[in-house]
Design the sequence.
């Protein structure tokens, strides 16, 4: 795990530990006396080596995903051609790569996919691209929606809070996966004519929409609780007394104190959505072949690992690295923003 | 006619215990090894013939080296769904029914897998008169129930009449329909419990004969009567619905103990006389079924081969995909397997109502990528390429290859394209559907199918249907699919049971098996004509010729594979043989080595 940077945090430790960061405007000057809290946090973050390495790794994944078509062009393969099926000598009669290590060769750097015989490297790059696109979009939407609803409910309280609380309860209790499996074919049959292929963008949009619709409840509930505790604090009272608007109180007083749970939730959510999306795909309602998908690859790897461990290794290892790096990054960002929440 | 699809679906979905739906051996694994993976598919197809009275006399041929005594264990994922013979239709129930149910006729299976229809309770396979409308069977002497009472013709008739009762809807319906001339036979006769007997079944206690008077000519009644649905039931011990829990045995074993979903112990029925039974050998003193172990778990136990598992076999679930490579690739394990083809055919039905042009249907047959599809199923270990409607174990089947699929299983997309061009249908839209959810192999085969169709100049559209409602949706007459994954398993190894339900235009209805919706005059009349031929050899030849003619002239389906299944058994099990009928072990032929 990361170690917080003690030296940079010293001035804060002298302050009485009341569990909340005072409003930004009252933050004590640090260093030259002109640094904004953002700059301080940035400086703190840069000193956290694990955080910086994780950031680079995460960045690498996003670059690889975004640049997948370019890389595939330079590399000379695409994730749709079934090389193993078309060229004899790549797959044996059981449909598994003949060459050792999953068929790794000068032509196929990461080997050949069992049975369909597609190129694993491009498949993985495109899979990362698709999965990250869906997971990132969902995480952003879920977080935005969760923040809005959570803070609104917590700050306003009363009947709105009650209403939101019940909606959250229902959503948390709702069997969303089952719902999606049941509704998906109906939705598709309404939206797509029976003699037409289901467009991939429709699948992606509906995946994001459904995961967002059922995903915002936990974060909203968490933030509501935090806001309930915060809104009785002296600094909020003080702001109210000085005549600050509701918007100012929410954005300037409450939100800065909520970044920690938000960031933790979001960094946990992103890898979770990658796996959720894969699970849905497995149940036949998400992305499906021939559209490459990271999670689907891992699932396939788990089925064939006894005969072709290599095929599981690449998507599996890259997923592990990505998830760990993302979580470490989240930790570091949290440490940088809020050095007092020490572990 | 009957929906024997049910037989098919369940026979397959038993394998679902291994994790996949209809195809069990299908997404099987291969190895990183050389191109020569396993020695699968050295198939000698079972031949089916009708035996004589001499063939029907017991005792059954002895297995060389067999030892009497001991216990055979059988591992299965689930308990049997029915024990009442009249309620048995599914293949896996028949695995155990073989041990305690006897019918008028039965199949004597030779060590090489060839089958002979012989008289089981009857002295022979019956005497047909009146052009197939009247059948007479004579019972053997010395037939007894497990309590020592005599098995009479009344008991045999009772078994037929119970098929009309309100609680036996799970069973087969062929004979009931033929006896009454109506598919709604339950409204005409309510079963034997009102004290009334069927007029069309006449028994003669003194001569020990039972005579069937059918409404239509059925030269194949002897085949239909071999189904366990027509097994004998003692009039004196019939407990109606409760008979399903505690059936009375007339076979070599009786049920001694049965804990539902846990285990079932069968012990020797001392009143069974081997001299009356040309089919069963019955060496072990008892057979114990253990329910619970999934296919993968059972395979691992048999690989480990310790304790009583040395005497164990896989009851009815085959070696699953995850272990097939290991089992076939290890000589030690491979020596402990039996394998065989599932009865029936897996194919793609072309919707003839939507695709009216024969040239397009032929082009689809040419383009279809069989080799790519089978390699996804697991290569030769998953089955053999199909080119005919009749599967290899159908009596009289003749192999042919109209579309050159055996020469070029990868598909001839160039030929397909030229056919399409000739028909002026380049860019023809093809809506392809398959069941989604149970087995992800079809999600893979879809990819190679789409690639091949595109190459051949089609415009493929993929519309998977959720697997639980799949059969209902493709069964609709007005469905919007052009090519549908499908399969069919016959109830007895005669061509009629495949060609009539699948291609007779008169049977087209919602949820009827004729999903190709082929309704062509010459096919319909040929089916009617061939079914009435009383000479077996001539009839079989006629069906084989019709098989080829339908494929060449109408191309209503794309045959895919005859699928293969592997079973593993322990080191101390002898006499292991694949049952070509119910696609599992022939339990009555097993023996425990010392």
Sequence:
């Amino acid at each position: 795990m990361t170690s917080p940077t003690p030296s940079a945090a010293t001035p804060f430790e002298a302050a009485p530990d009341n569990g909340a960061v005072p409003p930004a405007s009252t933050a004590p000057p640090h260093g030259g006396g002109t640094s904004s809290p953002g700059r301080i946090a940035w400086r703190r973050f840069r000193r956290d080596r694990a955080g910086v390495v994780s950031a680079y790794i995460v960045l690498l994944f996003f670059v690889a995903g975004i640049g997948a078509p370019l890389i595939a062009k330079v590399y000379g393969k695409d994730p749709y051609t079934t090389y193993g099926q078309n060229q004899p000598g790549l797959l044996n009669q059981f449909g598994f790569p003949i060459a050792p290590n999953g068929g790794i060769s000068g032509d196929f750097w990461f080997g050949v996919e069992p049975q369909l015989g597609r190129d694993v490297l491009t498949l993985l790059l495109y899979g990362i691209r698709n999965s990250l696109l869906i997971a990132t979009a969902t995480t952003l939407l879920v977080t935005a929606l969760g923040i809005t609803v959570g803070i609104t409910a917590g700050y306003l309280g009363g009947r709105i809070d009650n209403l939101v609380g019940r909606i959250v309860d229902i959503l948390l209790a709702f069997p969303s996966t089952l719902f999606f499996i049941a509704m998906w074919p109906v939705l598709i049959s309404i939206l797509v004519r029976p003699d037409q292929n289901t467009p991939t963008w429709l699948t992606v949009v509906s995946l994001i929409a459904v995961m967002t619709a059922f995903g915002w409840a936990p974060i909203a509930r968490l933030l509501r609780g935090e806001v309930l505790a915060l809104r009785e604090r002296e600094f909020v009272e003080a702001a109210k007394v000085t005549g600050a608007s509701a918007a100012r109180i929410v954005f300037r007083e409450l939100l800065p104190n909520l970044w920690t749970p938000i960031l933790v939730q979001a960094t946990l959510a992103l890898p979770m959505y990658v796996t959720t999306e894969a699970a849905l795909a497995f149940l036949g309602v998400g992305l499906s072949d021939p559209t490459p998908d990271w999670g689907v690859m891992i699932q396939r790897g788990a089925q064939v690992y006894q005969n072709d461990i290599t095929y599981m290794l690449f998507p599996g290892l890259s997923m592990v690295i990505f998830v760990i790096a993302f979580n470490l990054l989240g930790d570091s960002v949290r440490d940088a923003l809020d050095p007092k929440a020490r572990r | 006619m009957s929906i024997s699809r049910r037989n098919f679906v369940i026979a397959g979905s038993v394998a679902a215990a291994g994790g996949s739906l209809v195809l069990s051996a299908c997404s099987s694994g291969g190895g990183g090894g050389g191109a020569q993976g396993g020695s699968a598919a050295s198939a000698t197809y079972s031949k089916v013939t009708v035996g004589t009275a001499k063939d029907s006399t017991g005792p059954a041929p002895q297995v060389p080296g067999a030892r009497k005594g001991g216990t055979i264990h059988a591992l299965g994922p689930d308990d049997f769904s029915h024990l009442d013979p009249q309620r048995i239709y599914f293949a896996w129930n028949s695995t155990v029914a073989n041990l305690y149910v006897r019918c008028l006729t039965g199949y004597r299976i030779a060590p090489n897998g060839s089958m002979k229809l012989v008289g089981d309770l009857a002295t022979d396979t019956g005497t047909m008169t009146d052009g197939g409308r009247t059948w007479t069977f004579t019972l053997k002497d010395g037939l007894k129930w497990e309590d020592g009472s005599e098995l009479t013709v009344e008991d045999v008739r009772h078994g037929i009449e119970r098929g009309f009762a309100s609680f036996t809807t799970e069973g087969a319906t062929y004979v009931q329909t033929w006896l009454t001339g109506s598919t709604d036979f339950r409204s005409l006769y309510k079963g034997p419990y009102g004290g009334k007997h069927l007029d069309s079944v006449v028994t003669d206690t003194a001569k020990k004969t039972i005579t069937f008077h059918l409404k239509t000519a059925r030269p194949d009644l002897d085949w239909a009567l071999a189904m366990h649905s027509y097994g004998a039931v003692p009039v004196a011990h019939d407990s109606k619905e409760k008979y399903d829990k505690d059936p009375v045995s007339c076979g070599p074993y009786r049920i001694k103990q049965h804990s539902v979903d846990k285990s079932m112990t069968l012990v020797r029925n001392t009143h069974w006389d081997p001299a009356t039974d040309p089919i069963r050998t019955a060496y072990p003193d008892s057979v114990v079924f253990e329910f619970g172990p999934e296919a993968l778990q059972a395979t691992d136990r048999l690989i480990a081969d310790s304790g009583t598992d040395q005497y164990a076999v896989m009851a009815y679930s085959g070696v699953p995909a995850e272990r097939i490579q290991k089992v076939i690739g290890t000589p030690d394990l491979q020596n402990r397997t039996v394998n065989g083809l599932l009865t029936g055919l897996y194919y793609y039905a072309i919707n003839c109502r939507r695709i009216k042009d024969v040239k397009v249907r032929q082009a689809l047959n040419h383009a279809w990528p069989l080799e790519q599809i089978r390699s996804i199923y697991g290569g030769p270990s998953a089955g053999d390429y199909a080119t005919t409607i009749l599967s290899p174990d159908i009596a009289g089947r003749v192999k042919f290859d109209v579309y050159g699929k055996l020469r070029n299983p990868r598909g001839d997309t160039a030929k397909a394209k030229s056919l399409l061009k000739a028909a002026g249908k380049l860019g023809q839209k093809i809506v392809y559907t398959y069941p989604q959810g149970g087995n992800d192999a079809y999600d893979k085969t879809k990819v190679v199918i789409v690639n091949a169709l595109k190459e051949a100049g089609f415009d493929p559209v993929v519309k998977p249907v959720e697997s639980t409602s799949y059969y209902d949706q493709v069964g609709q007459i007005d469905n919007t699919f052009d090519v549908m994954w499908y399969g069919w398993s016959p109830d007895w190894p005669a061509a009629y049971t495949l060609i009539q339900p699948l291609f007779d235009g008169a049977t087209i209805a919602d949820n009827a098996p004729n999903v190709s919706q082929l309704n062509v005059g010459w096919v319909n009349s040929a089916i009617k004509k061939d079914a009435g031929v009383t000479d077996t050899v001539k009839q079989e030849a006629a069906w084989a010729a019709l098989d080829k003619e339908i494929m060449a002239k109408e191309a209503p389906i794309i045959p895919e594979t005859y699928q293969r299944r592997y079973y593993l058994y322990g080191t101390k099990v002898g006499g292991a043989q694949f049952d070509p009928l119910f696609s599992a072990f022939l339990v009555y032929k097993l023996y425990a080595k010392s």
